[in-house]
Amino acid sequence: MQDIAVIGTGNMGAPMSTNLSRSGFTVHAFDIAGEKLAPLETHGVRACKDHADAIAGADMVLTMLPTAHEVRDVFDRHFTQYAGPGCLLVDSSTIDLEDARRLHQDAAGSGYKMLDAPVSGGTAGAAAARLTFMVGGLSDHLDNARPVLEAMGARIIHCGGPGMGQAAKMCNNMMLAIQMASVVEGFHLAKQVGLGDGKLYEVAHSSSADCFSLTAFCPVPGVVENVPAERDYEPGFSTDLMLKDIGIALDAAKRSGLSLTLAPLAASIYRRFSNAGYGDRDFSAIYRLLATDEE
Ligand code: NAD
Prior knowledge:
The protein is 51% helix and 14% strand. It contains 13 helices and nine strands. It is an alpha/beta fold. The mean pLDDT is 96. The strands form two sheets. Strands 3-2-1-4-5-6 form a six-stranded parallel β-sheet, sandwiched between helices. Strands 7-8-9 form a three-stranded mixed β-sheet. Strand 5, helix 5 and strand 6 (113-116) form a beta-alpha-beta unit. The structure holds nicotinamide-adenine-dinucleotide.
C-alpha cells in the first residue's frame, strides 16, 4: 500500500494528503477546485489534472468529499473506470448509512475492497495527524489500510461491518451538534448575568461542562486561540456540513422508528442560520444567530 490517490482536497483532504506525503507515501491528489491543489505540491503531493490521473495505478483511493452525492458520482464515473483490480476504496467523507452500505455492495460486486472510514477531530486534528477514524468493513481490509490511516490519525477504531463507521460518525456528530448549541447558550447566559467569557471558559474547561465544542471550537471570539471564531468563523467545519450530518441522523432515527427530542431542535438552529446566508461559516457561528435572537 504505497500509492495513494486522494480525491477532494478541501479543509480536511488537504492536510490529510500532506500528512500522507510526509509519512513517505506517494500521494496523487485531485480536486475539482484546481486552486486547492497547487499549495499541496510544496508538501510533495502530486497535483493531478483529473480523476483518472489520480486514480489510475493507485493501491488505495481515499475520498474526502462533501456529501454522498459526490462520493457516488466519483465512484460511478471515475473509480470503477480507472481503479485497478483489487484497489482499496476508503471513503472518509461523512455520508449516510444506507449510501455507505450500497457503495460497499457495489464495490465488492465490481471486485474492489472498501472501507467506510469517516473521521472526527476537525481541521486541527487533520493538520496534526490526530484524527479518529471510525471504520466499517472487513478486518482484512482494515489491516491493509491501517498504516495509511495511522499516518493521518491517532485512533483507528473498527466499529463493525460495512457502514458501521458511518453509524458511529452519525451518532457522534448528532451529539456534537447539540453540544455546540448548549455551549453557545451557556456563554450567552454568562454574558447576561455579568460573568466574563474568559471566566466561564476557565471554569467550564476544568469542570463538568468541558467538551470539544468548548475547547476546539470555542464559539466566542477572544477566548481561545486558533479557533474559527478568531477568524470571523471561517471553517473549520461549515454550518452546511453540520446540517447535512444532523439530517443524516434524523433520517436514520425516522427510518428506525426512534423519536428524538434534542436533535430536531438543534437542526432547526443550524437550518435557520444557513437559510440566513451563513451556511459557509463555521458551525460555531450559531453563537451570532442566538445572540441576535436575544437582542
Ligand atoms: P470541503 O468542502 O472543504 O472539501 C471538499 C472538497 O471536495 C472541495 O475542495 C471540493 O472542491 C471537492 N470536490 C467536490 N466534488 C468533487 C469531485 N466530484 N471530485 C473531486 N473533488 C470534489 O469539505 P471538508 O470540510 O473537507 O469535509 C469533507 C468531508 O469530511 C465531509 O463529508 C465532511 O462532513 C467531513 N468532515 C469534515 C470535518 C471538518 O471539520 N471540516 C470533520 C470531520 C468530517
